[in-house]
Design brief:
The protein is elongated. The protein has 1 helix and 6 strands, in the order βββαβββ. The chain is mainly β and 94 residues long. 7% of the residues lie in helices and 41% in strands.
Length: 94
């Protein structure tokens, strides 16, 4: 699945774009803290695009945005994302 990571504030910037690996992880330097500072962020999960590539008929979900705030950039952020063609769950994990 294609994902994008954007910093929205204090300085808007696209930090990363790529695909989740076979384990569901996004292997990019930003996932190890590079370019991550305190501020507001958005991850875009391109679910509809992924489902279409899996020959699924559902067009219910398109791009799923998730906005969050980083107060302390030294902390680890894990964003477990679970979805079906009809819905999703996304939260901050440990």
């Amino acid at each position: 699945m294609r994902v994008e990571l954007h910093r929205l504030a204090p300085q808007p910037q696209k930090l990363a774009e790529g695909r989740l690996g076979a384990t569901g992880a996004f292997d990019h330097a930003s996932m190890h803290g590079e370019g991550v500072i305190a501020g507001q962020y958005e991850v875009l999960f391109h679910v509809g695009e992924w489902l279409a590539g899996q020959d699924r008929d559902s067009k219910f979900l398109g791009t799923v945005p998730f906005r969050f705030t980083v107060d302390d950039a030294s902390q680890h952020f894990h964003l477990p994302f679970k979805f079906t063609p009809w819905g999703f769950s996304l939260f901050r994990g440990s």
